[in-house]
Amino acid sequence: MSASLAQDELLITRIFDAPASLVFALWTDPEHFRRWMGPEDFDCPVAEMDLRVGGAYRGMIRSAQHGENWFGGTYREIEPNHRLVFTFAWDDGPSGEIETLVTITFTEQGGKTVQMFHQSPFSSVERRDSHVGGWTSAFEKAAAYAAQVSQEEKL
Amino acid sequence: MKSADPLSDTFSALADPTRRAIIARLALGEATVNEIAEPFDISLPAISRHLKVLETAGLISRGREAQWRPCRLETKALQQLDGWLEHYRAFWTGSFDRMDAYLAELQRKEKSDER
Predict the structure, then answer these.
(1) Domain extents in chain A
(2) Which of A132-136, B64-68, B75-79 has the lowest mean pLDDT?
(3) Which of A44, A105, A152, B48 has the fewest C-beta atoms lying within 10 Å of its C-beta?
(4) Domain extent at residue B91
(5) Interchain pair B88, A8: CB under 8 A
(6) B98 contact residues in A (CB cutoff 8 A)
(7) Model ipTM?
(8) Does the domain formed by A11-150 have CATH 3.40.50.1820?
(9) What is the pTM of this model?
(10) Does B56 touch chain A (CB under 8 A)?
């Protein structure tokens, strides 16, 4: 039961066979973004980005079964090819109205990129960081660990 | 104040480290306010306020029958949290699969352009 308490946070690590600059561009260039945003059976006909800290983005994905789903948020941190932080919320639906914070780090190792994607309800991240400052440093440790693992895989 | 969205209540209730610790304690079984307060260096009224927030969010319930009103965990709110997480996990995992395929396609194209 206590295990489910950490579960207001999501962490997905993926290794892509591409340089970090390209993986970063897939998030920040609307032309690229539209080509992959949304699971299978969805397409993403709308993506608009004002890529600067404080700038907004907005998009829509749709499928025959689920119709149109609009989403959007604001950029918080932009470190080209390394780190991207933005708020994310669906306009409506069961998890709509809850603003979340997404933090993605990109670590290039030998032509591959370790992408660490973290998402958490916005209020709890803000509060937790102000209380302990723990999450950010834990995340950086995890990023260092992922880099180490991918280094070892090459050996 | 109770908002229209029960998940928002759950999240804000869990944003506090003391309340997370209380939930962790109750995961072991029912407990009275005194038992819950024991490991904390804060007053009983303060603990009661935290319990009230957790109760409003539907994370715990308190027995009406007994004088000491034991607190217990309500699993429904936690299950909703799981649902929230699963929704996003499936969404992003599916998107990253497409990202992988698109990256491969882009790089194939780049290579054939070089030739």
Answers:
(1) 11-150
(2) A132-136
(3) A152
(4) 6-114
(5) no
(6) 35-40
(7) 0.76
(8) no
(9) 0.69
(10) no
